[in-house]
Write a structure and sequence with these properties.
abc type-2 transporter like fold; 4-stranded mixed sheet; 13 helices; 358 residues
Length: 358
């Protein structure tokens, strides 16, 4: 009797649907030169360009002008030129007014007599306010002022305080978002457009297996993607990674999963590439602007800060910067990790539930 009982046939590992689906994702990716460029090459080029453009350089001289017709204009200009922080021009009346109006100079100095000085500048321009302090300091010293307190300057510059140190975690977060959402969303919608999804329904696979194959393939490319960008930044620009590499890897892993799930959700119903492109741009554009990729999100008004803080890219960027630049442990970024996890726990089950095969 026992011989008549049918035993389930155990599939070899190479025959499992999830493995084969994941291998398909790899092949699709490497056969698209554009995808390889945007995921691996573009972040390196962007980091190199920003690192060179915003490299540490001596402070630029502040441009100021002296009105040529003013009292002892030449003597004043000579005194100002002795300060290495100022670039001084002596201009006639109309040229001086024009230079100040169009912003070629930050301040116009007009001495009107012995012991009398007028400064003309735009109060709303920060460089003009700084020029006012610099020029007046030179003028007062030239007139014999002595400072009762001796001051000494000590210049300090170290990795972690430069613009390139700030922007590399933002580029990493942006790349995790872009490759997760764009890479997955377009592949699914393209397969739906070509009616390939209908054929896959007849194969021995489940809906979660198909969607999970996209997520698993992203995790594999994640290792190379993160290693290339951080390795390049560390070797070329000495960008520090002060925190634990394990903590950094966990943040990147959780972020990649969250963005991949968001990409699945956006592509779950779209039928055309144009349609999913519009949805992805609608979701990603606010995060490009508000989530602190190229400049701090704190620059925006306090009224919108609660909304900015719940965006997944904001949480990712904050967690990456805290770990890389401050050496923060995982406990210090628990709020950010909670936000990233919440997006993952909401978007993936919802994508599985509403996914359309036709």
């Amino acid at each position: 009797m026992s011989d008549l009982v049918a035993h389930p046939v155990r599939k070899r590992w190479s025959e499992r649907p999830l493995l084969q689906l994941t291998l398909v994702r790899y092949r699709e990716f490497v056969r698209e030169p554009e995808a390889v460029f945007w995921v691996f090459i573009f972040p390196l080029l962007l980091a190199a360009g920003l690192g060179i453009a915003f490299r540490n350089r001596p402070a630029e001289r502040t441009a100021v002008a002296v009105r040529a017709s003013a009292f002892q204009a030449t003597a004043l200009a000579d005194a100002l030129r002795r300060d290495q922080r100022l670039s001084v021009q002596v201009l006639d009346d109309s040229a001086a007014d024009q230079a100040l109006r169009v912003g070629r100079v930050a301040l116009l100095a007009v001495p009107s007599g012995p012991g009398q000085m007028e400064y003309r500048y735009d109060e709303l321009r920060p460089e003009s306010r700084a020029a006012r302090l610099l020029v007046d300091d030179v003028v007062q010293r030239a007139a014999g002022r002595q400072d009762p307190v001796a001051a000494a300057d000590r210049q300090i510059s170290e990795p972690g305080s430069r613009y390139i140190d700030f922007v590399v975690p933002g580029l990493l977060g942006m790349n995790l978002m872009g490759s997760g959402i764009w890479g997955i969303g377009f592949s699914i919608v393209d397969a739906r457009r070509k009616r390939l999804l209908k054929r896959l329904i007849a194969t021995p696979m489940s809906r979660p297996q198909y969607l999970a194959s996209f997520v698993l393939s992203r995790l594999t490319w994640l290792v190379l993607e993160v290693a290339l960008l951080l390795g390049f930044a560390a070797l070329v620009f000495k960008v520090p990674v002060r925190g634990s590499l394990l903590s950094l890897a966990l943040i990147c892993l959780l972020s990649a999963l969250s963005f991949a799930s968001l990409g699945l959700l956006l592509a779950s119903r779209a039928r055309t590439v144009e349609g999913v492109s519009g949805l992805m741009n609608l979701v990603m554009l606010p995060m490009w602007i508000f989530s602190g990729v190229f400049f701090s999100a704190s620059r925006f008004p306090d009224a919108v800060q609660p909304l900015i803080r719940v965006l997944p890219l904001t949480a990712v960027n904050d967690a990456l910067r805290a770990t890389m630049l401050q050496g923060a442990p995982l406990g210090a970024v628990s709020v950010e990790l909670g936000i990233i996890s919440a997006w993952l726990l909401v978007t993936f089950p919802l994508a599985v539930r509403i996914f359309r095969w036709k």
